[in-house]
Each structure stands twice: as C-alpha cells, then as structure tokens.
Fold this protein.
Amino acid sequence: MMEVTIDKNSGYCFGVEFAIKMAEDEMEDSNRLYCLGDIVHNDMEVRRLSEKGLVVIDREELKNLKDCKVLIRAHGEPPETYKLAIENNIELIDASCPVVLKLQHRVKTAFDKMEKCQGQIVIYGKKGHAEVIGLTGQTLEKAIVVMEDGDLEKIDFSRPVTLFSQTTKSTKGFYALKDKIAERMAKANQQLEEVDFTANDSICRQVSNREPQLTRFAQENNVIVFVSGKKSSNGKALYGVCKTQNERSYFVENEEEIKPEWFEPNDKVGICGATSTPMWLMEQVMAHIKTFGQEVAP
C-alpha cells in the first residue's frame, strides 16, 4: 500500500511565519492592509490572505498612498521606503525578518568601510529580488549583484571586495562563487602579498540546514512531490537538492498539477516544500495523493 508523509522540516521559516501572523493580527481590527509586494512567494497563500483584506501594492503605488498602514514583509526594505513612509504619514507594520535586518546592518557597515578604500560590495543573489533590493539600498545602489559566472565581469578584481549572500541562496553556490572570486583576485593582485577579499556566509541557517535534511528525506522515499510557488528562489534551490538525490522528484504549485502516473502501488511518497510553502497546502497535496493510492492499490 502507498505510504505518504510530509517532511517535518518543510514549510515556513520563522521570518515568513512571523510576517503572516502580523498581517493576520492586523487584519482582525481592519478589513484592509496594504502589503509591499507578495507577502510570500506562493500564489495560493497570497490569494487566501487577499480574501481577508491584504492588498498587494508595488513601490510605485506606495508613492501615492497617504495616511494608511503598510506591511513590510520578511524580505526587508531599503532606507528609501522608511523615508517615504514618514513623508506620506504611512504607518509601517514592519515584519522584516531579524536575520535579514542583521544582514542589512552588516552590509551597511561593510559598505562604509569599503568606500574609504575604493572597495566593492558584492552580493550573491537574484537581481530584483525583494531582499536584494533591501540590501543594495544599504550601499546607495553601488553593490554588485552576482548570480552567474557572467556577472563576475562587473567586478574590478584589482580593488578590495567584500562578499555577502542573499539569505535564501544555496550554500554550495555561495562557496563556489567565493572560490572563483578568490582565484580571480589572486591573479589580478599577484604583486601584492595579501589580497583584500572578505567573504561572509550570510545564508540563513534555518534555510541552509534544509539542504542536508532534504537530502536524507529524498533518499528515504521512492517519490518526492515538492510543493512551491514558481517565484520562490528558495523553492528552486531546494527542489534541485531533491532532484539530485531522487530522479522521481516532481515540482508542483498545488494538487491540480499532480499526475497519477508518477506513482506505483507500494511507493513511499514524500511531500516537502520551500520556506514559503504553507503547511495547509502540503496537507492538501497529501490528501489528493492518497486518493491515487486507493486507485492504484492492487
């Protein structure tokens, strides 16, 4: 008989859980709360909260708002957002993740230091990602955002470099990038005894610990159904971990995308997800797969 389990380590990280709780608490007293960007990279959860009164806005729309409440999600925001809120008499409900806020402070401190020696701040992350916008905002938009090898061309390797990472990136990807930068800097500064390169592994441990946990989970099951919104960077990275360990891994946004032919009668099926995947959605997926179990049972 088919066995279906949900990975106990999957689902919301602390930061996302905290932001959603703050939004729900705020909406108990009012039927409308603005949120700067999707509160979480999961369309189904965004839809559920919008039915409660959460209105998603972008930065352009924020400029036209006055005398209201706006939620800042876990990803954090650049200094300009806070400045605009004061100017427009907007009350900010700040649900920035403490890990992200600490990183913003570290980036700002490092940037001030780098400015004195013509150095550069490099951020391993996705350009345009909400968290990355908040981080580059600490550097007067001077930080160099690097995601792929081609982006390395933006760095002047003859000048000092301080490297940070978006908190939800892959640890493996960060260390591979660190090695490439170190190699190029050594080449560009052969005449110097010491190369001025500092690499800060600023990946959230609650996120990075999921890689080894998911590795085990993917090996323990015959089939993996990974539930995540397609916009989630963390989802893509963690699904990649599953796929590497288990060829029968499938990425779905919800139960409607699941196909019965993925399963055999005696399969052990594991359901897991990103830090932006709500538990109620994984439970919905499990209930749906269990109906296949009845159909394929011998």
Q: What stands out?
A: The mean pLDDT is 93. Residues 157 and 187 are 8 Å apart (CA to CA). The first strand starts at residue 3 and ends at 6. Residues 98-116 form the longest helix (19 residues).
